[in-house]
Amino acid sequence: MRAIIQRVNRASVSVAGELTRGIGRGLCLFIGITHDDTQDDLKYIVDKTLNMRIFPEESGDSGFDQSVVDVGGELLLVSQFTLYASTRKGRRPGFTDAARPEQAEPMFKEVIDAFRLNSGLPVETGVFGASMKVDIENAGPVTIILDSTDRKTPRRG
Questions:
Q1: Statement: the pTM of the whole predicted model exceeds 0.90
Q2: How many Å apart are CA 122 and CA 148, to the nearest integer?
């Protein structure tokens, strides 16, 4: 499972020109699901995201002291199969590493439920499978790439 995490002042999702959901200060997450993702992958992404210190202290002196939970932020979760695009061959990306919708949608719903259950924060979502316009005001800018395979890779050094 992959997540692109952006610290935002605000973020919203529109479908067919209509605003569907939005948040204020918090995190916008684009989440990609692959074929062999498990509950361990889901737990890793949720726990790491909720506890990652990427918000400044109240004084604003430093930019990476508090988590989204510490600051009482909000979360916007958007499913994005293109995070598993392969560009190894040709000019058109391939998406064979992305889970098929019938597998990805239930897993994405579990991700949403896990963020709601474990954070106590407001959690909004995009619309699974829809063509969406995502409007983001990135704060920092801060963008973090999180991949659940990182938990399986031994640290160097």
A1: yes
A2: 24
- In the set 81, 108, 115, 125, the catalytic residue is 81
Asked whether 135 and 28 are in contact (CB, 8 A), the reply is no
* Those residues with Cβ within 8 angstroms of residue 87's Cβ, 6 or more apart along the chain or in another chain: 93, 94
Selecting among 34, 49, 80, 125, the annotated active-site residue is 80
Catalytic annotation, pick one of 38, 39, 82, 96? 82
pLDDT under 70: residue ranges of the chain: 60-61, 152-157
Residue ranges per structural domain of the chain:
2-148
Q: Which class for 59: exposed (0-12), middle (13-18), buried (19 or more C-beta within 10 A)?
A: exposed
Active-site annotation holds for 81: yes
> What's the CATH class of domain 2-148?
alpha beta
Q: Which of 124, 113, 152, 148 is nearest to 34 (CA)?
A: 148
80 noted as active-site residue: yes
Name residue, tokens 């259950």.
117
Catalytic-residue membership of 153 = no
